Amino acid sequence: MFGTYGGLVGEGVLGLNKRNGDYISRFNPRRLYPLVDDKLKTKRLALQAGIAVPALYGVIGTQHDIRTLPDIVRSHNEFALKPAHGSAGDGIVVIAGRSGNRYRTIGGDILDEDFLSHHLSNAINGQFSLGGVQDVVIVEYMVRFSPLFERISYQGVPDIRVIVFRGVPVMAMVRLPTRASRGKANLHQGAVGAGIDLASGITLDGVIGTEVVTHHPDTTYAIAGLHVPDWDTILGIAARCYELTGLGYIGVDVVLDRDLGPLVLELNARPGLAIQIANRQGLLRRLKICEERADFGAPATQRIEFAKQEFKHPVGASI
Hints:
Distance between the termini: 8 Å
Number of strands: 13
Shape: globular
Structural class: alpha+beta
Order of helices and strands: HHHEHEEEEHEEEEEEHEEHHH
Strand content: 15-25%
CATH topology of the largest domain: D-amino Acid Aminotransferase, Chain A, domain 1
CATH class of the largest domain: Alpha Beta
Radius of gyration: 19 Å
Number of domains: 2
């Protein structure tokens, strides 16, 4: 089961070149990339379509706008700052409380206005953006993660990644922050990736890199066997993002807010391949099944039922 690609072997594995050539190039027109590469555009598009996202408090678009932050968050003690073109969580600051001109991050650090102003200035100048392009910073609602994940997450907010092929969900995982990942749900920085059975919404064992883990490294609680709430809603949101963007091969990132339920965080036109390691299943086999048997023109509910039937995770299966 473990070997060549990040621990996986066999013809069912989707490699980088095949992903780029056979799926991203074929099904993701470059003219549509700005819809997902710009988080502000994605948020506004989702709002127009009635898809739930974290509430937008304001936008800091110029150096001059930085001074407006206290006014934007005047009635919000908790909020998140996100570069619109950032990637891998870079540049995101999550504020969990404040007193006067001092702000407390979700990790407990105390920041003053000068620090935040400097950070915002760097973000606008493109320090955290893809390709170093001039950027804007989104000020939005701070997600309060579902109690379901309290025992298997360290500080940060876990998120759920669903790979969607032409409107059909084909694979899913939850990314769990750790101490090593500094509270970020980023697999490359040491977060746990745990597969999710598409049919049931139940978590599988996790992986850190290519190492299988059964318990969270910081909390020591078991990872597998948790039933993700609102699973059908999450799959429905993910499937609808095909119509939302017109992109045929995307990663949809969803968080479970304790009060608001599933919220779309962002979309990705070039989703990574580590989800295969988290599921110990190859994407290529599932994509081929879709191309052979799926009705891509069917309503989202039917596409989801197809995915549940075809991609139920077999016990003890490899790829």
